[in-house]
Amino acid sequence: MVNHDLVFLKRFSTIIAALMLLTIVLILGARALYLSAPKEPNTLAEQRTAERLQPVGAVYAGETGAAAMAAAAEAAAKAAASMVAYDGSLDGGFIYNQLCGACHTSGAAGAPKLEQAAWATRLPQGVDILIKHAIEGYQGSAGIMPARGGNPALSDAQVEASVRWMIDNLK
After folding, report:
1. pTM over 0.85
2. Which of 20, 59, 66, 106 is 20 to 30 A off residue 3, Cα-Cα?
3. pLDDT tens digits along 19-34
């Protein structure tokens, strides 16, 4: 009599051993192929690594750092100049409608509406003081004025134009 279980077990073991041997051969072949391929440098990865390894800051002192410091100041000035609100428009009415009106129309945070009565205590201070408060920000007993109306990209000239427009258009 033939023991069917023993025959099955021998065939199954042979198939498993053959599959394991095939797996090992494929792994070794893939490794040999990988190691024999020429390595091309990944310039993007090398560039990123170099950027990450650069120092966070630098010390600029005396003559040696003057040129680098001037270049950094120039780059900062260009960046600041490119961030002017409303394309540098000096139209006070436009700036008021885009930004200032949000508070000065509703009287939010104590902002004076465009009415003579609301500005009665502020106008005697003088236009220059009102412009200064609009640029630097101000907190008084009547309310709060955020610096540059809450938009740091506004230039001094834009803030001045909008304050003058508001004063000229009081009802």
Report:
1. no
2. 20
3. 999 999 999 999 999 8
- Residue keyed to tokens 């040999």: 32
DSSP class of residue 86?
G
Residue ranges of alpha helices (H) inside the chain are 4-36, 43-53, 66-81, 92-95, 101-104, 116-119, 127-136, 156-168
- Name the 3-class secondary structure at 1: coil
Are 147 and 135 in contact by the 8 Å Cβ rule? The answer is yes
Fill in the amino acid letter for 103: C
CA distances from 81 to 72, 77, 85, 94, 152 (A): 14, 6, 10, 20, 12
Which residues lie across from 139 on neighbouring strands? Answer: 144
The ranges of the chain with pLDDT < 50 are none
